[in-house]
Amino acid sequence: MSYCSPHPDRLIGLALLPMRNPEAALAELERALKLGFRGGCIPCTAPGERPYHDRTYDKIWALAQEARFPLSLHIFTSAHAGTTGLEAADPITAYASAPVIVQVTLADLICQGVADRFPDLKFVSVEFNTGWIANWLERLDHAFYRARASAPAELDLTPSEYWRRQFYATFEDDRNGILTREAIGVDTLMWGNDFPHHDSVWPHSQQVLDEIYEGVSDEVRETTTVTNVSRLYGIGVPGVAAAANAWGGTGLSAPS
């Protein structure tokens, strides 16, 4: 947080939660909130013996929901070394096939009840891009219809409806996601330039944005580059940064 502290209205730190140990992850979440973090990162693949729908994580989900603390799943982050399924692949295959990794996790969060039990909890798929999401949501809805008994009976929305209510996805240079934005949900898409990683579109960000949004309205461009992320993390909202930094005195507490 020392890096972010000079500009808390613009720089939003994300805390890393050690999900292999749910008790330690809960303690770290509490600590992060007291330090003023406004979001966190969890592995994009859950521990193999304990998927994210396991009730062991419920205290973490409950506190993150209560604190309005979005949880990001970043590309190639695994709870265990060697569990993404792409370790043996060459770099081209691994990079191109990466969305498969997060699809499994997102389907678990949606179709096994986490999103339903915690309706205000937000998740962010980070750097997997977005061009695959429209087709994946269509298939997920179809699979949900075909195998409804495989999901908890209390789920009362389709997977795509849970997605549009609680999930986000980031992209850098992915025009296909913008072209299928209505099927994905315009309010779920967030652009980033990934500086300073090699995926970064900087210093050509504006040129890349012009290419991505060619023929697309300025309203959609504003929504997906500014509005969505601002709403999610309270950027530019008066008092949000101060409230986050004073979390320890807000009365929020870990669920018993």
SSE order and pairing:
Layout: E1 14-16, H1 22-35, E2 39-42, H2 58-66, E3 71-74, H3 91-97, H4 99-111, H5 114-117, E4 123-126, H6 133-146, H7 159-166, E5 167-171, H8 175-179, H9 181-184, E6 189-191, H10 205-212, H11 218-233, H12 240-245
Parallel strand pairs: 1-2, 2-3, 3-4, 4-5, 5-6
Short summary:
By secondary structure, the protein is an alpha/beta fold.
Could you please describe the fold and organization of this structure?
By secondary structure, the protein is of the alpha/beta class. The protein has a single domain (about 15-250), classed as Alpha-Beta Barrel (TIM Barrel), CATH 3.20.20.140. It has 12 helices and 6 strands. It has helices at about 20-35, 60-65, 90-95, 100-110, 115, 135-145, 160-165, 175-180, 180-185, 205-210, 220-235, 240-245; strands at about 15, 40, 70-75, 125, 165-170, 190. A 6-stranded parallel sheet has the order 1-2-3-4-5-6. Strand 2 (about 40), helix 2 (about 60-65) and strand 3 form a beta-alpha-beta unit. Helix 1 (about 20-35) packs parallel to helix 2 (about 60-65). The chain is globular, with a radius of gyration of 18 Å.
